[in-house]
Amino acid sequence: MKQSPELLAAHQARRETVDPLLAAAQPLPDPLETDTELSCPGGAALMRNSAADPESWGYTFFAAHESRLLPQVDGPRAFAELLDLWAAQDAFRPGPDSIATITWPSRDTEMSRALVERGFAQQSIFAVRLAPPSAGDGAAAAASPAAADAADAGGVVIRHAGPEDTATVTRLWLEQLHWDARFGYLAIRPSTPARLADEVAEAVGGEEKRAWIAERDGEAVGLMVVQPPEHAGWAANTIRAERPVAYLNCGAVSAGERGGGVGRALARHVHAELDAEGHGAVLLHYTAANPLSGPFWHRCGYRPLLTTWTRGTVG
């Protein structure tokens, strides 16, 4: 769509002010046939309407119908006006398995009230952990805090997962999906088991993804899956980073073990490895309504980068 350079510059200036870590804003994409262009003084947006592929992995995390607003604004007044223009469109129909969604910088809190007043709630947080300045100096030095955490967690043993762990990784990952599904922002679909099997195969294969398992007394009680930089470009493009960026796909702890230190030991171990390998940042999504996720990941050094606000539910 035609967009003024002045608006893009004002939008970018706002992003840089609220969070300098965010990557530079790009012009709005050319509209698709199903898109609707919206504009007002000081703002422009695309309303992108889509239907999920019921056989895709994404169908677990996305509603059957989605209306997504892609806005660029110079301030709160234009932001609020675009929200109202969006809500007036026929394709804006939040409800069961139909979602209206907008993603915005988490630190731009001046926009939050306009969203809340229009019935939006925080769905998910895209969070970032930056490696400490000393990272990359050697795995042995980096791993020592993880060893202490493992001792605090009652002798938890952490190891890399391989093909022989397929059933274990599937069990832990599926348990995490069921846990997050109760908050209304993902759904266990008929296609979920088959698509999860694809993800697990990548994780235990060790190339497109890497997986770690935490064991206590020989029983697997925790899982972390990470997408390495060569496959995480989509995530890395959201921040300004000079060193490789990874994406954490899954962090799971068995229900009976939550709060017992397993997750902390696992996270410290995995981050120590990634830091020692020279990763500059790790990104992840967590469910905003999950009472355990936010506090846990913040203790691990993550902080909010982008917040997805929604109306409606997945499933």
TrEMBL record:
<protein>
    <submittedName>
        <fullName>GCN5-related N-acetyltransferase</fullName>
    </submittedName>
</protein>
<feature type="domain" description="N-acetyltransferase">
    <location>
        <begin position="156"/>
        <end position="315"/>
    </location>
</feature>
<dbReference type="InterPro" id="IPR050832">
    <property type="entry name" value="Bact_Acetyltransf"/>
</dbReference>
<dbReference type="Pfam" id="PF00583">
    <property type="entry name" value="Acetyltransf_1"/>
</dbReference>
<keyword id="KW-0808">Transferase</keyword>
<dbReference type="GO" id="GO:0016747">
    <property type="term" value="F:acyltransferase activity, transferring groups other than amino-acyl groups"/>
</dbReference>
<dbReference type="InterPro" id="IPR016181">
    <property type="entry name" value="Acyl_CoA_acyltransferase"/>
</dbReference>
<dbReference type="InterPro" id="IPR000182">
    <property type="entry name" value="GNAT_dom"/>
</dbReference>
<keyword id="KW-0012">Acyltransferase</keyword>
